[in-house]
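I would like you to sit down with the record closing this message with an eye to the fold:
=====
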Amino acid sequence: MNVLVTGANGQLGNELTRQGGDFHCEIFPYDLPELDITDPTLIEAALSETRPDLIINAAAYTLVDQAEDDPDSAFSVNRDGPACLARACGDLKIPMIHISTDYVFSGENSVPYLEQDPVSPMGVYARSKAEGEARVRASLKNHIIVRTSWLYGVYGHNFVKTMLRLGKEKKKLSVVADQYGCPTSAADLAEALLRMAAQVKSKDRNIWGTYHFCNAGIVNWCEFAKEIFHIAERSGQSPVPKVEPITTDQYPVKAKRPPYSALSCNRIKENFNISQRPWDKSLAVAIERIFSDGDI
């Protein structure tokens, strides 16, 4: 199966490329400047060259706070780009998997969000991702939208690598403890997407629509940080910093975050037989790989 991956240099795109062969997928990785997903001409050229059976759109503008000052870039990549891809896929009858985020929700829930729950994004980044979802739905019948949360991995910049770096520099860290969600390994998300890709090709049932995927378990950022250092200490990193809880109000940022953005993943289990690994187990695997690669 030929799969074109956009955003191939990011943490998810790298994992899709690394794991593709395990799922009998030939991955065609594209990123800037070779493929700008907001440019229909470049999209047409990439599709003509690779003739994929499926596109996985992992390209995104993910600078949540910077988006408040640069909304044009956020909406261009997160809304207009997916729309361009979806229209091109529609013309050529190519299905697409598009990656979205838990931040499309307001965080007012006290139980994990379902796929059909109404979105209520806060901030430019969140709105751009919600509008990107809407454009994909409007432009391409054979689509899958996968929302994920608190993504981290071996490649690129993310919370886990930031904590490990700061842990070498500081004796004490203050981390927000009143925002709850589900940390998700990019490696696990990539595996889930490739398992979905294999089933998309069979086309023996209607599997289109919106899904959630994250690792199992709900924690706050402070608990997440403490587990990062607990694993790091077991792996031989010493000393590790003391992690102290603070409130969102004590750590002001430009963009509002949902205080609770846990995702229910029952639908992906029912339709694709894809299960969630516990977040702490996947975190331990990722940290071992990060230390092995020496890239913090």
